[in-house]
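Colleagues,

Please find the record for the two-part complex below.
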Amino acid sequence: DTAVSQTPKYLVTQMGNDKSIKCEQNLGHDTMYWYKQDSKKFLKIMFSYNNKELIINETVPNRFSPKSPDKAHLNLHINSLELGDSAVYFCASTLRRGTEAFFGQGTRLTVV
Amino acid sequence: GENVEQHPSTLSVQEGDSAVIKCTYSDSASNYFPWYKQELGKGPQLIIDIRSNVGEKKDQRIAVTLNKTAKHFSLHITETQPEDSAVYFCAASRGYGGSQGNLIFGKGTKLSVKP
């Protein structure tokens, strides 16, 4: 069983569309994250979330919103997609903050 | 907030040689320092980590050293093999709640091991 799984693996969409990426972890972890990896491989945190607090990186546009239906899932919704949103998005989870992070395989988003 | 600098951005070595990647961090309260390996088309995977109460940790061909005074830590890979070729990331965290508990990553080092 994959510890952190995200779908889809590839997503190609037009500018202005709204899309979602799903993430699920079966590790029983408390905290989940979304990271954005740009073309230069830089990993930048977007959100971290547990059942007590959502922490948003101040540089993330409010077109991006995380939604957690339960402790094992943290989905990423993106409204009004722009060309600059093209990147690989990684979901991750940790038992608690400051411990080993387990990453999904990534979703390559291409906005055309 | 925390800032992590990583050098070099690319590193090419001959098979069997050693590789060293260095990182510096800015937040003296950071106490957790993991290293991740990312292979092409995959997510980053932890290879070794160290906490601030330890100066060095070793796992087979991989070792990490930490200098808290200078706020830098390094990854050492000995007897490199072609399968070590990947992008390596260092990271730092305060290890507790709030945004300071989030992992902040360096910009990565692309390691190429030539047969």
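Chain A touches chain B through 24 residues (CB under 8 Å).

Comments are welcome before we finalize the supplementary table.
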